[in-house]
Amino acid sequence: MTSFEEIIELAKRRGFFWQSFSLYGGLNGFYDYAPLGSLLKDNIISVWKRFYMDAGAIFIDTPIVTPESVLRASGHLDKFADIASECPKCHSKYKLESLMEKLGIKNPPSSVDGYLEVLRENEVKCTACGTRLADAYQFNLMFKVTNNSEAFDLYLRPETAQGIMINFKLLNNFYRGKLPMAVAQVGKSFRNEISPRQGLIRMREFSQGEVEVFFDPEHEEWGEIPEGEKFTLVPNSGNEITESVKEAHRSGLIKNSGLAYFMNLTALILMRSGVDGKRLRFRQHRKNELAHYSSDCWDAEVLIDRDWIEAVGISDRGDYDLTRHQEFSGENMSVTVDGRTFIPRVVEPAAGFDRILTAVLFHSYYTRDNGNKVLGLACDVSPYCACVLPLMKKDGISEKARDLLVKLTSHNQSVAYDESGSIGRRYARQDEIGTPYCITVDYQTLEDDTVTIRERDSTKQIRMRIDDLLMHDNTFRNDNLKKFIESSKS
After folding, report:
1. Which CATH class name applies to 4-80+141-362?
2. Which CATH number fits domain 384-487: 3.40.50.720, 1.20.120.450, 3.40.190.120, 3.40.50.800?
3. What values do phi and psi take at 27, rounded to 5?
4. pLDDT in tens, 37-81
5. pLDDT for 297-342, tens place per residue?
6. Potential cystine with 353: which of 65, 80, 207, 334 (Cβ 3.0-4.6 Å)?
7. Which residues pair with 65 in a beta bridge?
């Protein structure tokens, strides 16, 4: 089984991501996306965007810096907090909910007093130095911005959602008053995590994709829910079941039709991005872990290094946000449809792209029988869809290879070029960074304008005319070429 340390080592060595500010000792909770990681993340976001655009969502881009008044209305100022404990000796800090899970203490409390009792009864100790933990306190997760030019406080946003919520009336006017209406946003959010850890999984600055879907309370359907694959579903009762999202909605386990629709869409997006469906499940929040704005929430969790990690949260926010902003701003957030006046209800699928990327790396990483490492990245998300390899640097071969590279990139292809080392070594190098296809230009190419194409996963090779390769845009960003190669003779 792939270990977390293997992925971290690969990510740093091959240029996917590494710790920020490492020249000055690093800073916990912050990571830089290196050249390949930046491309991979952009491609995952593109898959996500494409699915939501096809579903009919509109997009918006709002500021990161947020006035205190917005966050007071949304409830984040008072309620966006974790309960923490600090070791009195070594000053290690712990998010107590996570610590309880590690210690196998089920059903953690929801109050400071409850945690104090648990700490006392279980004699919980600091994992760093062994000292008893005796204190618990509320730890607000927002970053406050130093601001000397305004009469009010500013914060770095803890979620992208509020930028959509406060623009609801303008957006609905743009959408000509129609409901349902889905509004999506991609951007950075910030949480002052108590103990950031595990690379990209728990960071203080992270990339989100959130969609606020506004519904008429009497018509909370977005579209037909397809039968789809069966997944492990973990309801808050704790009894795991295996069935499709549609079956779970039909049985009443998932009560909200809109929630079920976007759970199913989330699964499709994750699997298209390269998440293994067998290492994907949906878990319903217990009542005591629901966010202050949520009445129901199902997390799409991915298995990473033996732990189930939330990648996407699909939440029923009801009319909480719009009602609060109406109360605090004085702006009427209601709409009138068919003579009925109401405040729309909201379903929110919120994706964490850094966690999705981590899962994609974990689920695609494997070792060949010869010991070579491979990232079996999906063609839709791999940093490069192909790499051009000149067999030699002489006799006009490298010039021919460079010419092919220019032609491929002009066809909207993300293509690399590598002329260093033996062909076998170059194949291995591209396999390890997830490149699906290698295109070798050799002496025969100079004679008949054909090239050898090698497919990463099967390692099969075929000969193809360059004109056929250039016939379509995005030749490599689909499964047709792979299927053709795999079905051909070795």
Report:
1. alpha beta
2. 3.40.50.800
3. -140, 120
4. 999 999 999 999 999 999 999 999 999 999 999 999 999 988 888
5. 999 999 998 899 999 999 999 999 999 999 999 999 999 999 999 9
6. 207
7. 156
Q: Note the pLDDT of residue 479.
A: 66
Question: What are the structure tokens assigned to 475, written together?
Answer: 């030749």
Average of pLDDT values for 130-136? 92
Burial class (CB in 10 A: 0-12, 13-18, 19+), 198: middle
pTM of the full predicted structure? 0.92
Asked if 72 and 321 touch (Cβ cutoff 8 Å), the reply is: no
Determine how β-strand 205-215 pairs with β-strand 230-234: unpaired
Please give the mean pLDDT across all residues of the chain.
Answer: 93
Domain ranges of the chain: 4-80+141-362, 384-487
Kindly give, in sequence order, each residue whose CB lies less than 8 Å from that of residue 456, ignoring residues fewer than 6 positions away.
374, 376, 430, 431, 434, 435, 436, 437, 438
For the chain, give the percent of residues with pLDDT over 70.
98
Task: Return the HEC string of the chain.
Answer: CCCHHHHHHHHHHHCCEEECCHHHCCCCCCEEECHHHHHHHHHHHHHHHHHHHHHCCEECCCCCEEEHHHHHHHCHHHHCEEEEEECCCCCCEEEHHHHHHHCCCCCCCCCHHHHHHHHHHHCCECCCCCCECCCCEEEECCEEECCCCCCCCEEECCCCHHHHHCCHHHHHHHCCCCCCEEEEEEEEEECCCCCCECCCCECCEEEEEEEEEEEECCECCCCCCCCCCEEEEECCCCCCEEEEHHHHHHCCCCCCHHHHHHHHHHHHHHHHHCCCHHHEEEEECCHHHCCCCCCEEEEEEEEECCEEEEEEEEEEEECHHHHHHHHHHCCCCCEEECCEEECCEEEEEEEEHHHHHHHHHHHHEEECCCCCEEECCCCCCCCCCEEEEECCCCCCHHHHHHHHHHHHHCCCCCEEECCCCCHHHHHHHHHHHCCCEEEEECHHHHHHCEEEEEECCCCCEEEEEHHHHCCCCCCCCCCHHHHHHHHCCC
